[in-house]
Design goal:
This protein is an alpha/beta fold. It has a single domain, classed as Alpha/Beta hydrolase fold, catalytic domain (Rossmann fold, 3-Layer(aba) Sandwich). Helices cover 44% and strands 18% of the residues. The chain is built from 11 helices and 8 strands. It has an 8-stranded mixed sheet, sandwiched between helices. Helix 1 packs across helix 11, helix 2 packs across helix 3 and helix 4 runs antiparallel to helix 7. The protein is globular and about 50 Å long.
Length: 286
């Protein structure tokens, strides 16, 4: 899961709830000092939340763009039902379309990981509310075989145990497989709080999407919208060569952020923000 580098919102941003035709969504909303050059909608990935984009808010706003990071249905501070059907990809895509409409349309859409698959589905359903699409750390179809197996184990655990027990087992497994540097106590507390607040059916439904997503690249290539494929130099969910090939098929701008892995938004926010702003400017529609 993505780990935000810090949790305090910059002065240009505020937390509130975005009212849409499909309900309210918790957001972090950063605005530039002058009238914005455009609006950016940031859609998080599997096990993620709006906080994953917190380090992008200030540099994006400083470049003149309003940046709105959202908790999707059933994620963190946005409520959702205990029903997997509510988290079908088509339902989540309709949520993104409603969020874009509530922001006034003409939105630069960015989806991270699973959020990229959902954002792609939204664009394929109706591209008219969007000025551009960025797929960040998101590949053309289902995740890699090792990650599919890991995700299936997580889905099975979520069906058998409560969220607290699954969290403890995940932490134990992570510590055994890849010991990492200590996490600051406030971030560790946030990661657990976010996990406990996320609806388990949301995780089960979206986890199944990650393991079964078809390749819709040819459909997306036919949509006349500026496209951007951005990733780190290493990715465990979708190998970087898969994203290279997808970008070529989409005739998309391709950015590889050196020193980043699956979450360049959190791991290398400065270069990531620079690449995003450059794309929005070069798209000629922002």
């Amino acid at each position: 899961m993505s780990r935000p580098p810090f949790l305090t919102l910059p002065p240009c941003a505020r937390a509130h709830r975005l009212s849409t035709s499909r309900g309210e969504f918790a957001v972090h909303d950063a605005r530039p000092a002058a009238p914005p050059r455009g609006t950016v909608l940031l859609v998080p990935g599997f096990t993620g939340s709006k906080e994953d984009f917190i380090a992008l808010l200030e540099p994006v706003a400083a470049a003149g763009y309003r940046a709105v990071a959202v908790d999707g249905r059933g994620q963190h501070e946005t409520e959702g039902p205990r029903d997997e059907a509510a988290y079908a990809q088509a339902e989540l895509a309709e949520d993104v379309l409603a969020q874009a409409a509530a922001l006034g349309g003409g939105v630069h859409l960015l989806g991270h990981s699973l959020g990229g698959l959902v954002s792609r589905a939204a664009v394929l359903a109706d591209a008219s509310p969007f000025r551009s699409l960025t797929l960040m750390s998101c590949g053309p179809a289902a995740i890699s075989a090792p990650q599919q197996e890991r995700t299936r184990r997580l889905i099975a655990a979520l069906g058998a145990y409560d969220m607290g027990a699954v969290w403890l087992e995940m932490r134990r497994a992570d510590a055994e497989s890849a010991p990492a540097a200590p996490v600051p106590p406030e971030l560790d507390a946030f990661l657990r709080e976010r996990w406990m607040a996320t609806v388990p059916e949301q995780l089960m439904a979206t986890g199944r999407q990650l393991t079964s997503e078809p390749d819709r690249t040819p459909e997306l290539a036919a949509v006349p919208l500026p496209k951007h494929v951005l990733s780190g130099a290493v990715d465990y969910a979708w190998p970087v060569p898969w994203m290279d090939a997808m970008a070529k098929e989409l005739s998309a701008v391709r950015t590889v952020v050196q020193g980043a892995e699956h979450s360049p938004n959190a791991e290398r926010p400065g270069p990531t923000a620079e690449a995003l702003v450059r794309f929005w400017e070069l798209s000629g529609r922002g």
